[in-house]
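The data are quoted verbatim for completeness:
=====
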Amino acid sequence: MYDKLSDKFLFQYFMLHSKRKDNIYSKNPFYITNEEYRQFVDTSIVLNGLVLRIINNINSTFSDFIEYIPDFKYKEQILNLKRPFQKVFWVRYDGFLKKDGGIFYSEFNYDKPCAEREILITGDMKVYNNINAEFRDYLKQALKCAIERQPKKEMYRVALLADPCHYEEELLTFLLKSELELDNVKFIRVGPKNLCVEDDEVIAFKKKIDVILRLFPTEYSCEINDFNKILHAFDMGRVDIINDPRVIIGQCKNLYTYLWKLVENKDSRLSKEEINTILKTLPYTKSFDKLYKEYILRHKDEIVIKPVYGRYSVDVFIGNMYSQDEWIEVYEYVKNCNKPFIIQDFCEIRNSDTFYSPDGNFLFPVKAFANIGCFLIEGKFSGAAIRWSDGYLTEDENTFITPIGVKSDVIQIKAIDVKNRKNLWNKVTERAMFEADFTGRYAMNNEYISLDYVELRRQKYEELVYATEKLSQILDKTQNIVLDNIEYFADILGIRELKGIAKDRFTNEFVFLARMDWAIDFAGNLKLLEINSETPAGLVESMFLDKIIIEELNISKESSNEDLKEKIIRQFKKIVEDYKAIHIIKIIGILSSTYYEDWYTANAIYKIVKDLPYEFVIGSIYDCKVSENGKLSLFGKELDAVYRYYPLDFFKKENIGHLMDALKNTLSINPVHTIVSQSKAFFAVMYEFLKQGLYDEEEKKAILKYIPRTSVEVGELNTFDYIIKPVLSREGIGVKFACELKELPEENYIFQERVEILNLEQNVYSNMGKKRDSVYPIIGTYITGKEFAGIYTRLGKLVTGNTCMYAPTFIE
């Protein structure tokens, strides 16, 4: 029906038209953890219960709070209303994720909380565990409850009160009228001058009003006609007001000051749960006073100054956004202002990764701050409006809105809890050096070995094993078809110069040892990003460091790598037996480049197979020569077979093609034909074979479920949300997002649907200290032949490069 997403929002949701209409809303969701979601739910309910208790007892138990509420017209009349206080129709808590973990609320919005449109819009979007999916139902049910409290009659009139000068709120009345439609309710949109009171009845346009649903600030109620009479009618039960004007008690930001006073005094009016919730989620607050001048000026970067009745971030001053001279001007302005302010501790907000999608087109990775407005309707957590901004303040000029969901918890990072973490890390890495010859303690200046471990749900682990083995069978089948027709596929795969040697198959085994790199998306789905068929890294970590970490941390969980060594040996022996049919195998070389990471893996393979009944020679491939018999030789010894931890395409790239030619006589344990499945264009070939019906129904389902759509033609993807990869790249080199491209590459690249990779929060340690950061787990599953053999997990940036961390993986 609508050509653009923004058109739907304009006409179906009464969105305010603006020049930014195409880039205010993004379909790309933001996800929080289940733990963070529970924190928002539990703490907001606890705090709301406390606030309602204060409102209900403002003239008795909590009467000492009245002095904290600034004066405004009708204050005394409102605080002395006799009518029983009903459930609060709706309230919004402005929540944030703390930089170092946890959550906090910057303020409460009890009076006239906005952002209902944002929640309704995002609640209709397709999002895993969508927090807002039931918001519409909560809203309708709350209105039904409000109507049921009225004297029984056939038709009820509800006045939607908003200031016509505030277009966003005025348009919101149109939306509410549309969304809350009931057979026995008639909505009337009114402004502050359209109401009057006759014989204790509230009238609008000559019609009696039963309920006033207001989007109008209580402290400005002096602008509403006959408001004192409206309050009287309300007190007599002749009209209902949503929200009850007494919610100004909860709206007053000095409530934070009061609550902290109670906490500091260990006041018995607060329960232990309420005290703990205040300590964890409310920034320390006190009333502004010029006596605090020295403190305010000296602690600029640690405080925020905001008005007690402020809205829309007006007159909110965050110290670290100002120079010292500017801050002095701020102080003078606040001191001389005719409205009251509070001083609040500054809490650092987590600067989160998200994707900004203007009208569903290109996705732009950005860093932004999320304001998570948590809605409670009649005391129940009902949804959240997430508004993003490039700074600490949420401002209309640059904010954008995304859906929000709760990410799957099939994979988690379990943080260790030890007093001397650094000493333990040193011990682990020292053992790695002496027992495994591993000196890669750091990746750049970050600690490479993580003591925190990754835990997989058992069901997801079992699916991972199944998917690895099922796709291995499909990949093997596909590779054989390609090898039988290598002349047609060599150019697509980027192996034109290697097709001659690739077609030589001296074993029918799919691979000796390979690694499939899996991502998990926010819904917990497994997605295979690529396969490293030739030179899979991580063996030292998976076999030796796993064991060291288990022993030093006393971990009792099941490791995924217990059988890795045995399976590697078994597959090694199987391929050597195949090669014995070609010629005698006595001397086997284990070769790598001189790059330190390559040497780790080559050395690990040597440690695994060195007790087999062969003579092994280990060294650099650059030291090899070609013997008179056309075989590779190393240190004067002619090699019958080699395990080469060296990519086949590098022989041409590094001008040692004469050594590659010798692989016809010195057989490669990791078969040369694996260069076919090593190419990232291999997945594109598979999707072409899908069209041609070369797979059975079960194979087709597995490919569509686990492999992102991949093509050599960008138009085939039918999306703007893709990445490009060079067909033979490694370690994330050359991988780019669609939005980063100035022009499309002409050849030797593939286009692949972007996977929304689930991110986790972890403490990242470096020689500069500790910081909390988002990391993206990539689970590498080893296969020997076509059998699952183990796991190597890396935690890194969105595109995994060579500065990632290694984390051992265990099963729940």
Residues 414-562+674-811 form one domain. The longest strand covers residues 769-784. The two ends are 47 Å apart (CA to CA). The chain has two domains: 5-253+350-406, 414-562+674-811.
